User: Fold this.
Amino acid sequence: MSLFKNFNFDKLKNSLVKTRTKLVNSLNETISGKALIEEDFFEKLLDILISSDMGMDVADKIITKTRIKLKNEKDRTNANIIRIVKSEMVAIFNNDKLIEDKNINSSLTPYVILVIGVNGAGKTTTIGKLANNMHKSGLEVVVGAADTFRAAASEQLNIWANRAKVRIIQKPGGDPSSVAFEAVSAAIKDHADVVIIDTAGRLHNKTNLMIELSKIKRVISKIIPNAPQETLLVLDGNIGQNAIVQADEFSKVTEVTGLVITKLDGTAKGGVIFQIFDKQKIPVKYIGVGEDIDDLQDFDPEAFVSAIFEN
Ligand SMILES: Nc1nc2c(ncn2[C@@H]2O[C@H](COP(=O)(O)OP(=O)(O)OP(=O)(O)O)[C@@H](O)[C@H]2O)c(=O)[nH]1
Ligand SMILES: [Mg+2]
Assistant:
């Protein structure tokens, strides 16, 4: 039984138009008409990479490695430089330990996914899209509306659950952990494959957040000892550096096993995904490329880099 694969290169390319326009146009301006690489080329390249929010460390890593590789290259054409830069961008994501297995081990079912993140990051929307993708790939999904803080939150998830044609467990005004408990119990009873639990983004402080998340986790693990098997942190791709701060904060509060970067369609700073990964070393599992139900894709570094460069 494998999790869905939702991937559409054209859609990805279209969603990254702002990031691409900024990065590729500046790059073309920098290299056009130059037969040989000049020293200041690398400085300009550094600026270009930083301007897409890749961050100084990542940009520096890419350039240092590109320079080293170029020393042994006979082909010093612009096309070849770009090829090396692209491969070094992809290499940022290379980490053997982080090669993820998206297969669900049937002995672990239901596979419980807890979704966390600040207010407005895109948690509920991501759950709707994820539930839809999984349902379409033949998995039985239950979603739990454990964001009981806001009356409209449950209704919003309900709309997504209807669209995705999956079951929802909700208890507006109730205790988040009891919703989580009921969602997992219902999934076991229904022999469902996956449970996805929505949580509130608005928590007054870190202590509250920690208490609530650990309570949810404790309650779930009473039913399934190794659950939740996945804790996805949803980060808004538009917020640049703040996403790093949020990832740090949430990692202090609870173990985060995967990242979802949303709203990449609205930003010219799509490079932030490199920086987040480089700093956190947590696999980026999915990316949000729009507001529609089909707009959640598997993250593939190679495709992502190609989509940034292809016109
Ligand atoms: N363009 C775009 N918009 C997105 C994406 N993901 C989410 N959104 C929008 O972001 C807004 C907030 O999304 P929600 O899913 O409600 O965010 P949330 O994290 O559940 O928010 P709270 O429940 O208030 O904590 C909505 O208007 C979504 O349509 C995306 O990938 N692209
Ligand atoms: Mg929500």
Remarks:
- The chain has one domain: 1-311.
- The chain has a mean pLDDT of 88.
- DSSP finds twelve helices and eight strands in the chain.
